[in-house]
Amino acid sequence: MPLHDAHYQHWTGEHTSLWHRRRVIAQNGLSSCLRTKALRMIMSVCWVSALVMAGFLFALGQLLVQDSMMEHWVAQMNPQLQSFFEVLRSWLQYHPEISVGTTQNVLFYFYCIYLMPLSFFALGMTLPALITRDLASNAIVIYSSKAVTRFDYLLGKFCTAFGVLALTWLGPVCAAWFVGNLLAPDWTFFWHARIALMHALIFGLSSMVILSVMALGVSAFSSREKATPALWFTWWALGLAIQPIALHTLPWLRHVSFGYNLRQIALATFQLGRDLKTAEDSIPIFGDMLKHVPRETRAALDNPTLAGALLGLALMLLAAGLILRKRVAPE
Amino acid sequence: MSALIVAQELSRWYGIVMGLNNVSFHIEPGLTGLVGPNGAGKSTLIQIITGQLKPSSGQLTVFGQAPWNNPPLLRRIGYCPEGEAVPKELRPLEWLQGLGLMSGLRADEVQGRAEAILDKVNLPREHWGKRLGQYSKGMKQRVKLGQGLLHNPDLLVLDEPMNGLDPMGRQEVAQTLKELAGGGVSILISSHILAELEALCNNILVLNWGRILASGNQTEIRGDIKNWSEELEIECDAPETLARRLFEAGVLAGFDLPPEEGRLRIRVKDAASFYEQWTDLLLASGVTVHALRSRSRSLQNIYDKVTT
Prior knowledge:
The structure holds two protein chains of two kinds. By secondary structure, chain A is an all-alpha fold. Chain A is built from 15 helices and no strands. In chain A, helix 1 (18-33) packs across helix 7 and helix 5 runs antiparallel to helix 11 (258-270). Chain B is an alpha/beta fold. Helices cover 37% and strands 27% of the residues of chain B. Chain B has eleven helices and 13 strands. In chain B, the strands form three sheets. A six-stranded mixed β-sheet of chain B has the order 5-6-7-3-8-9, sandwiched between helices. In chain B, strands 11-12-10-13 form a four-stranded antiparallel β-sheet, with helices on one face. In chain B, strands 2-1-4 form a three-stranded antiparallel β-sheet, covered by helices on one side. In chain B, a hairpin with a 6-residue loop joins strand 11 (252-256) and strand 12. In chain B, helix 3 (92-102) packs across helix 4 (107-120) and helix 4 (107-120) crosses helix 5. Chain A binds chain B through residues 1, 3-4, 6-11, 13-16, 18, 20-21, 24-25, 28, 32, 35, 133-134, 137-139, 141-149, 152, 330-331, and chain B through 50-54, 69, 71-72, 74-75, 77-79, 81, 83-90, 98-99, 101-106, 109, 116, 119-120, 122, 144, 147, 151-152, 154, 172, 175-176, 179-180, 183-185.
C-alpha cells in the first residue's frame, strides 16, 4: 500500500458495548499472563492434580460399592480400613449425606488448601503483566485515552487476575468435583456432594476476589517488573515465617499472613470441626483415629479465628485500594 | 464555525503548584499548534482535553462535552502521548488490535484497520513480527501515532509527535497530518520544534506559566502584539541607495547593512503603509531587488515576543 493514499473516513459503524470493551482488557491481560512459562507449568500441575482428585473420588466411590475390586484390594492391604469403609457403606444407605457429603467436604477442604499456595505462586508470576508493565511503559495513559475509564481498566485487570485464579484454583476444584462424581457408582452422589461444592465455591470465589484485589494493589506498587513479584513472595514468605513464632507470643500477628487468613475462612466455610465431630460420633473407628490429633489442632479446627482473619484481609484490601488510588486512579 | 474546544476559567493545581491558571480560550477546527516552554502547562492542558485529568476549577468542553470520565466522547478523540508509552512485550499488530477493540471497533474489522494504519504511518511490514521493545524510537513513534488514528477520531491530540523521527520521517508525519486535516480531522499538536509547527498549523496557542499568552491564527496574533515591527531582508544591487531612499520616505524604524554584500535589513514602522508605498519607492530608487524575505513572521518570533 503506497504511503499517504488512505482517505480518511470518520467512523460511522456501531460501537461495541462497554462490557465488551472491559472483556477485551481482561482477555488481553489473560493472554499476556499465559505467555509466562512458569504460569503454564503451575496450571498444568493444578489440572493434573484435579485428575488425581477425580481418580481418588472414583476410587472412594468404588469402595462404597459392595464386592468391588477396590474393596478386595483395600481388604488385602489393611483389614482395619475395610471395616471403616463397611461402616461408610452402611451409612450410605441410611445417611448418605455423611458417607458422601461429609467425606467429600473434608476432601475438598484439603484440596482447596493444597491448591492455595500454587495459586499464590501463579498470581505472583503474573503480577508484572497486570499493571506493572503498563506503568513502566506508560501505556496506561494510552489505554485510559480510549473509550474506557480507569475504573473499566481496573475492572478488566481484576478479571485477568480472577481468570488466573480460576484456571489454577477454582477451575480444577470444580472439574475434580464434577468428574469425580460423574464416575461415582450412583448419580445421587452429585446431590449428596452438593454441600462440598457449595463450600468450595463460597470459599474459592470470596478468596479469589480478595486475592485479585490484593494482586492489583501489589502490581501497581512499583513500575519495576522484578519488584512486584519480589514484594508478593516476600510478603507470603514473611507470613509463613511469622505464624509459628506468633502462635506462642502474639497470636494476632498471624493475621499478617494472607495465607493464614484465608485458611481461617476455609475452616469457617467448610466447618471442618463439625464434620470431624460427626464422623467421630458416627464411626467409632474414626473416633479412635482422631484421639491422636493434638488438642490444639482440634481447637483450631473447631474455632477458626474468623474475625481476626476478616479484619486482617480488610486491612490488606484497604492498603491495595490506597495503592491503586494513588498509582492508577485518574487525578 | 463553532469552536471545537472551549475552556472557561480553567485551572488545574498539583498540590500548591499551578498547572493551569484560570485560562479561557477556544480552539477552532483544523490544525492548531500548542507552544510553550517546559512547565508551561501544555501537557496538563492535553491531559484535560483527553480526559486524563479532572480540572480543579472552571470547565473545558470538547465537541460540547466535558472529557472527564466520558468514554463516548473519548471515542472521538485520538491521543498520542509524549514518551514511549508502548508495551515492550507485544507486537504492533496485536497491540493495535487490542486497542481497536477497547475503542469499540468490531472484532471482524479491527485486523484490517490495524494493518491499514500501520501502512499509513509507514511502518515497514518486515518489522511487524518484532516486539515493540525491539523497535527504534522512531518506529515506536509511528506505532504510537497509528494507535491514535486507529479508531478514526474526529480530534487527534499529539504531544511532541516528531520526537525521535528522522527528517524524512518528520516530513512523512507532517504530510499525513496535513492530509488528515484536509479530510476533516481536527488536530492539536504540541511541539517544541517551532519551525515544524509553523509550517503545519495556522492557529496557535501560546502557553507559559500556566497562562495563555496568545491564541488564534498567526496573523491575528502578530496584529495584536504591541510595538510589533516587521523585519525584512532585501537582496539588491545597491543596498545603501535603497536604504537612504526608504529612510527619506519615513517608513523605516531602523536598518542594518550586514557584512554580506548586496543585503539590507530593515524594520518598518507600519507594515500596511510600507507595503502600500513599496512599489513606488522601489521604482523611484532605481535599485534592482533580487529577493525580499520577512524575518519576523516566524513562529519563533511570535513566541519570543509573547513570552518576554
